[in-house]
What we know:
The protein is mostly helical. It is built from 5 helices and 4 strands; from the N terminus they run H-E-H-H-E-H-E-E-H. Helix 2 packs across helix 3. The structure holds a DNA duplex.
Amino acid sequence: VIPAAPRTPFAARVLHAVRRIPPGRVATYGDIAALAGRPGAARAVGQVMAGASLIHAPCHRVVAAGGRLGGFGGLPALKRDLLRREGVAVVGDRIRQFAVVRWRGLRAAGTARNK
DNA sequence: AGTTTGACAGCAC
DNA sequence: TGTGCTGCCAAAC
């Protein structure tokens, strides 16, 4: 069965933000929190992710700060494989070239240096 | 309405 | 580097 998607307003905004992450790119919990309109709510974002699944959004593209993998519901190997499958280099629990692969979301027009 | 709970972030050691 | 502790937040109790 398809698990129900979290229905709180905050969760909806978080999942929406996560779905915007392009394949082969990643965003931190903090980034998502900011994109969801709640800067600093990184931890709360994790809470949402815990209740969601790949069916709702590409959860594997949400990583911890500093390019570390972060948790993944007890299946860190899966998260690593999914990312590698998209071309993201992962060694151990670290993402290589994190600064390059990181996706900060699109902002103000003119700031087109992050596609 | 107060407390507990984490797929977090940062900083001090 | 790695470990530990504190701050923070939305949700579930």
